[in-house]
Amino acid sequence: MDFYRQHFLEAQRLAGQVIQMKKNQYLSSVPADSIRLDATAYVPSIRKWYHLKGFRMQTDEEQTMRTLRQSAAEWLRSARSRGGAAAFVLSGEEGELNIFYGNGGSTELSGMFGAMLPECEGCLGRWEGAAFAYNGILLGSADAEHIADMAAASEITDYYVSCVVIPAADEEIQEKLAENETILSYLNDYKSFQRVYGTGSRRVEEVPIPEVVRAISLLKEENEYLLRNMGQGFVRSAVRFGAPEASSYRRLESLLLACLHQDQEVQQGFEPVRSFGIRGEHRGWQDCLAVPRVEFEGGAVYPLSWQAVTNVANFCVPPLNSCKGFYVRNYHVNEASVQVFPLTKPVTERGAAVGKIKTADWDAVIPHSALLAHSFASGASNTGKTTTIKRLLKELYEQDISFTVIEAAKKEYIGLLPLIPELKIYTPGTDGQRLFINPLQPEDGVLIENHVDAVARAVIASNGGEHPIPEAFTGLLKQTYEKAGWQYGTMAYHDRERPFPTFADALANIPEYIAKHGRYGPEVRKNLEGALTIRAEHMDSGALGQLFSSPFGLTARELLETPAVIELADFSDSSTEFLMNILMFKFHSYLSRLPSCGVLKRVIVVEEAHNVFRRTLMEENGRALNNNYFERMLAEIRSSGTGLILSDQRPGIMSDAVMANTAVKIVHSMDDAADRSLVGEAINLSEFQTDKIRELAKGECIIGIRGNYGVQHAAITALPDERISNAACHICTRRFRCQKEAVERLIQEMEPEQVRFHLSKVRTDLYNVRLLSENISSMLRDLHVTASDTTKLCFLGAVLVRCGDISFQDSRTIVSSYAGYLAGQR
User: Fold this and answer.
1) Torsion over CA of 248, 249, 255 and 261, rounded to 10 degrees?
2) Distance CA 777, CA 787 (A)
3) DSSP three-state, residue 734
4) Which residues, including other chains, have CB under 8 Å from residue 17's CB and lie 6 or more apart?
5) Residues 356-385: pLDDT tens digits?
6) Kind of pairing, strands 203-208 and 96-103?
7) Entry pTM
């Protein structure tokens, strides 16, 4: 009896040990914060690190995930076959995710990952570790999916998560199975004892011993799992993690526990997931991978968990979505994709920042090299397109890069004036510095006949005309130049003694030209003379006539070498188109003769660019010839260090050259499906992404850059307050010695009743410049101030602000008229 009792007791003791050790149940008695890192810890030997930085996603997301799991599994099997340790690390540094794979053998990791992941980006490197104040260890099943994605998407900026893997050889598994079978054989004999009931009729009952039954169940469960997964291979692992602050540490711990699978199927054969804090100092990567010894009543062990390679591989996969530091190329974004516009690598070369990336904390930058290859900005009205370009110009100006804006509609770029004091605003109207140009004045070095062809093309493109009108207009201009002393074959140059002709001269020469060259019947001659007269009169009358009245106007150099805005909103559509074409030709003529330069020195912004680059179905009309010319211009002017920024609401009406020859596409929200499709195809968006363009909020844009994968989804940074309270600022000659505050103080010194009295007089007849001048002089006399003309203009601007109900545009007109009146008095 004592013999059997001794065996039962021994079986119970052995069962207790099995229960305590299987699934690491001994950890249940270990306090959550009692584990300390010291010299007895196990530190895996990692000889090589591979820094994985990205890859290309395959068409099917599930296939991509399978490939990622397979890559991680092959890495683990390689380490296992060579008997060395391995480590997978997620390292968050200031919000940037870094992925490292390490092993203790000599396996070439770059080739291993590169062979399986399309367009794999990575390099041999070294993870330095992190000396964080809060560190922990997770034990149990490491089977998880998307843990890297969740870590990257979390608000935790600094952290590390490392999976330490110790290979288990097949022989070790066989030994474990044999050991389990031996224990099972012994415990099976003592899993129950017989209990006899009654005296007359004896009844025998088998009474199970709970500890032994539980131990047998655990042993069988483990053996079944080992046998079922024998072909996959096994390892022992632990997950280490840490963060600099207690709150970040707790959030990281919660995230890891939420990611780890804990269902019955996965857990079978292994212990549940447990988390422990680790005390002690951490210095470098060895301490961040170290597995501390854990002491308990039965002894001390390294708390590593048995796991199948495939389970650990699931934990060790990189992100499936782009994030800062890790970039996944996804050319097949659809409704199921997490990111509509996947994050792309930050631009590191020199460029101009226009805003912030929507899903990251760095600038949306357009490189100078891309701007030098020209840009196209599109978007519906009131989507922020002009604000984007103004922000870009402000950044370029601060980098000593000049700009010139041709503004065909509205008058919005004057808002840059408070930010760029040297900005010049040219206008053909009565509200600013007048733009004097002579379309018949070639730039220096241009052949007369080439300039004649350009002017004739511009006239026909803006006003129309079929054969023989274009030819006749070219002949008329040739005759006009000859009469002014400029022959074909001659290069133009500046000569005050020999001025260039104007359109007034061309108009006067029409009768003579028709008489000498109009070899048609009387009716055709009369019609041709009328057509030439109409076109020449249009250029010699009204606002255009004033603009073109001087033989010597502003040159391209004067307009391009200092920040300038040319406002054309006061003209008709045809006049605006002609002016824009002439200006662009003059710019090209000047730029093509500059020394070659591979650095961005200036940009030209063309608003409402369809006036110059408009799609046409006919191949021989004036507009088509213009398009051909400007296509060459796009290809040529970059050699002078000049980039074009073309802006228009409707991409669909632009010539094909705009999409083909611009390296940067800035896309704001637009409603028209055809327009969205056009720009979407140009920047390689999927159909789903293209549809999403319509949902962009005001101030958001998509930036596509040739040669760069993907697009930047940017929120444009608003400029400082652009409001110009004083309408005299845009014609002021003392912007760098601004008198506005002094003028404001003058008005404040007047009694309120006196101010109201003078305001009433000013408002009586705002556009009567003589009366307005008298009223301003009267106010200054009351203040006992003798003012210069510049101060008077500033003073009037401040007075108009006090009126309250006068628009800024009207104030510009009034101040400009007053400036002209003062100039006439001198």
Assistant:
1) 180
2) 9
3) coil
4) 298
5) 999 888 899 999 999 999 999 999 999 999
6) unpaired
7) 0.84
